[in-house]
Amino acid sequence: MKHGQPQRVLIVGAGPVGMVCALALHRQGIPVTVFEQEAGPVHDQRAASLHPTTLDMLDDLGVTRTIVPRGLVSETYQYRDRVSGALIAEFDLSTMRDVFRFPYVLQYEQYKLTHDIAQTYADQSDFDVRYGHRLRSVVQHDGSVDIEVDGPDGPERHSGAYLIGADGGRSTVRKAAGIAFEGFTYQERFIKIATDFDFQSGHPDYAYRNYFSDPDEWCNLFKVRGEDGAGLWRAIFPTRSDESEAEALSPDGIEARLQKFFPKAGRYDVAYVNVYNVSQRVAQTFHRGRLLLVGDAAHVNNPIGGMGMNGGIHDAINLAGKLTDVLLHGVDGAHLDLYSRQRRHAAVSFVQAQTIANKKLLEEKDPASRLAKFDELRRTASNPESARRYMRRASLLESLETANAID
User: Fold this and answer.
1) CA angle, 310 as apex, 308 and 312 as ends, to 5°?
2) Which of 402, 391, 307, 315 lies closest to 352 in space, CA to CA?
């Protein structure tokens, strides 16, 4: 290593959180190597909503000028009662122009964000992304961490100052660190169905982001551009407790589910569909020795509200700042405990709490409780001051301010 050159940071996982973390470190002059077990960039169709707070961070990294023209700008989002068809509440982020640099949610699929970063910045000697590399083992030392990976040409050994696990809910890095993943998994699974049918053709009052409450089968409906830019609508539902994965994924099962909520003439054209388990879990700590966790490796939650990827990117930016202090400015490594305290607080007190509350609102079965929750949401949206408070929280601004105040 050349004199004065900062030590390399190793990252496992080339999803949006891992790549944003790598870019943030790279911007500070810290060399990074990212290892991804998949053979190439993964077209993961899960997350697609970038909140205003996240767009601010990506703008600081020079990313928004590329992604905003390619995404869908969604200023409003709606809560609806699917039983009656009534609009319960609408929130308009454009009223927050005095707060946010980007007063909207950008609908932009996570795999596109990953691709944009890799295409523009990766594969340089100091920003090295290696696909087809699976982590096998981790050994920590006083001043470094060694890993062994299975690469396309066989086992490889690498050494760095720190190892960051951005490798998802089943994180190998978290398991190597012996960190407990506390929480629970929902009994029902979630099914996501994408179709090119334009729901706004029959419901021009729909927003690009819609949350439908239903005591039997709630639904999230939102739009993305898709591969060709023509537009896809994604619908997320819970599966029934007695429903097998094969039944949920069958063409007739998919059609029945869509027709139940959105009846139309003829069958739906389905672009893709998948069923997945959903959990609410948070790692006991995000930092142990020279191992650090970000994103789904540190916390997972249900997708209602689009907070998982956003919270993970917030982790990545916070951690990159702390690592820069340690590696470039001589701050003691114990400073990384502050990263864990701040971001774990954000995950537990805000992301977990809000996503659980969102799910309870949509699935409430008791008629009186449903009406009470609807009335509360209406009052919140109709009052400008309470609506702004709600949007601050839903956009994760409150979580950032509270977490960053922790010392």
Assistant:
1) 70
2) 307
End-to-end CA distance of the chain: 34
372-397 confidence digits (pLDDT tens): 999 999 999 999 999 999 999 999 99
Residues of the domain holding 334: 9-69+108-183+283-363
Supply the CATH number for residue 173's domain.
3.50.50.60
Alpha-carbon gap, residue 89 to 104, rounded angstroms: 17
49 in any annotated domain: yes
Count of structural domains within the chain: 1
For residue 150, which phi and psi values (nearest 5 degrees)? -90, 110
Phi/psi for 257 (5° steps) reads -65, -45
Structure tokens at 42: 């993964």
Residue 175 resides in a domain:
yes
Residues 4-49 have pLDDT tens digits of 466 999 999 999 999 999 999 999 999 999 999 998 877 777 789 9
Answer whether residue 3 shows pLDDT above 70.
Answer: no
- Helices 397-404 and 52-60 pack at an angle, to 10 degrees, of 60
Tell me how long the chain is: 407
Q: How far is CA 124 from CA 25, 70, 159, in A?
A: 14, 25, 18
Mean pLDDT of the chain: 94
287 within some domain = yes
Give the gyration radius of the chain's Cα atoms.
21
Q: What pLDDT, on the 0 to 100 scale, is given for residue 306?
A: 85
* Out of 35-49, 89-103, 305-319, least confident range: 35-49
The pair of three-digit structure tokens given for residue 220, joined into one six-digit string: 């999230």
Q: What is the DSSP letter of 349?
A: I
Total-model pTM: 0.95
Which of 328, 315, 343 is closest to 11 using CA atoms? Answer: 315
DSSP state of 124: B
Is 304 within the bounds of a domain? yes
Q: What sections of 110-250 are H helices per DSSP?
A: 110-121, 172-177, 199-202, 245-249
Does pLDDT of 2 surpass 60? no
